[in-house]
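Incident review: delayed structure delivery

Summary: a single-chain prediction request sat in the queue longer than the usual turnaround. Root cause was a stuck worker, restarted by the on-call engineer. No data loss occurred. The affected request and its eventual output are reproduced below so the record is complete for anyone auditing the incident later.

Affected input:
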Amino acid sequence: MNFTPIGRLLLRSRGRRVDRWRGRGAEIQEAQLRRLLKRAKDTDFGRAHDFEGILRSADIRKAYAEHVPAASYEDFRQDVMRMADGEADVLWPGVCRNFAQSSGTSGGRSKFIPVTPDSLRLNHYPGSADVVAQYLRAFPESRLLSGKAFILGGSFESRLRPKGRGVKVGDLSATLIDSMPGPSAWLRVPDKKTALLADWNVKLDALARASVGCDITNISGVPSWFLRVIRHALDISGKEKASDLWPNLEVFFHGGISFEPYREEYEKLTDPEKMHFFETYNASEGFFATQSGRVNDGLLLLIDNGIYYEFLPLDAPYGTPTLGVGELRQGEVYEMIISACNGLWRYRIGDTVKVVAADPLKIRVAGRTKSFINAFGEELMESNAEEAVTAACRATGAEIVNYTAGPLYASEGRKGRHQWVFEFSVVPDDARKFLGVLDATLKESNSDYAAKRSGDLFLDPPQVFSVPEGTFDAWLSGQGSGKLGGQRKIPRLRNDRTILDALLPRAIPEE
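Output delivered after worker restart:
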């Protein structure tokens, strides 16, 4: 039975509300901030930072910035651990029983993000509804709800052993799946037990087998991991393409990492006449943005879903005031800071975004504030890397599973250079060409890199290595319990050699 007309009717007003945001972004955001402060004024954090006084001020945004400093996770860690041990009213009202373990792999301690009932009710689930609303609005011919959703989720595997009664720690997707109402189970694949399996090696086969024979209309997950599931399902079924296995498949709701290095592989596996790729920006800390049209012209920031946003220009001197929605310049890149209904106040999530359109605000994820290479003044960002890798793959027929890059520092008789480690599912047909296109595209997209590479005076050509199948999985598994799975990501760029030195012993130079 096709429930799409009913779903479109129920979500019509939700999809259309964004048309009323133009010129009202600052007003809507101030209302979000006021609601957040009012809700949390009697928490330990709210009393310590005088939320009551902020609410009485004439300029609430200015007063909030003066009373609450922008903070990293380490500033919240102790309070989050109190929440995990069962204390109430710490950062957010009530007791929090769900925590999302960060997928960060920077070598530091894991982060545990509170997933409060309010963050589910006001942010994560409404964000998911917004994605469907915008998709159905963009594609009126859709039959999205005539079949099932194949959702790739994580698990509750974690090293953290909280003392709080009934507290669960794991991937955000595990909490979302676990908290879904029972009747929704018939709309998705796999069942909850399979979806929450912790052992990825067991789960991969279970996921694939659960999907074979089902009428799948849409899939959701991280592109790199879902590609493995699809290929395994094809091996089991004997089919050549995902569109043969699931004839009614029409959309991949993707996020977590850039889709571009994987686009051609997905296009080969699906029916170009009916398949769409719809990007979302959903993190443990919140559901931030979604594509809103047939063409991905930037992600619409969801400004009324329980989050107050601030933005800081890159390389801004200490003390530079943050900017709000309505104050950003198109084409500029900013660090994003959030205050949310999970109790994270003026939290520096570590993401940078590029403004594509100012009103209503549309963005693209530019990268991580800590995921870059600037060992030689080249200021290489994730967005540069993704563009270059995509171009190199297209030029040489290569397909990748994963990659990372970092610096090789100058030493006696040798200039510095970048080293790239790739796990290929299809190796380049010409390794020299792959390297050349990678280097040339980086020069085109990043003037600082181009200047350092000019004439090989300051920076030698990059070096590319390939590693055997499973190398990146093995590294992720070695980072601690629960690190392997559909929600885990390798840092694309590192400004040190932590990951490179772990991977290179198994690497083979491509050039």
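Verification: Residues 104-108 have pLDDT under 50 and may be disordered.
Action items: add queue-age alerting; document worker restart procedure.
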